[in-house]
Amino acid sequence: MPVTKDDILKGLVAPMVETFEHKGITKELLAEKLMDELDAGRRESYRAKIVKKVWNEEKRKFVDVIDTAIIYTEVEPEWDVRQKARQDAHKLRGDYPPEEKRISGADGQPLIPGDVRPIRLEFVKANVEKKK
Fold it and tell me: For residue range 27-62, what is the model confidence (pLDDT) as tens digits?
């Protein structure tokens, strides 16, 4: 039976998937991490400077002691992380048009069934125009 393009691509991808699974990088873990990235944020705390007058027994007078206190905390969204995660999610779901994949021999010629020469994989983005 001749080898198809899909067989070759599956043969290239399958070992990586098995390696990831063996190391604990499962689909479920990736989905959890994606959800974390979609909600990415940076905690911002606003502090106030507090100056207290404290009696210093050695100096026999009041001295200033400077302290800080958190008066307000909020989570600022990290939009760049969220945007990248959203784009990754769309790619994983297949929402974008597929990329064209060309498989050819080492010399750039089409593969001939039964040919055992080394192959070169070339991934080319398909030019798709939006309809208005």
Answer: 899 899 999 999 999 988 888 888 889 998 998 899
Angle, CA 23 vertex, CA 19 and CA 25 arms, to 5°: 90
Q: Which of 75, 76, 74, 72 is nearest to 46 (CA)?
A: 72
Q: Where are the domains of the chain?
A: 1-40+78-96, 41-77, 97-132
List, as one string, the DSSP characters of 28-43: HHHHHHHHHHHT-EEE
Q: CA separation (Å) from 132 to 4, 17, 53?
A: 37, 39, 71
Dihedrals φ, ψ of 105, to 5°?
A: -70, 175
Angle value at C-alpha 47, between 46 and 48, nearest 5 degrees? 135
- Average of pLDDT values for 14-30? 83
**Residue carrying the six token digits 């939009």:** 79
The whole-angstrom separation of Cα 53 and Cα 115 is 88
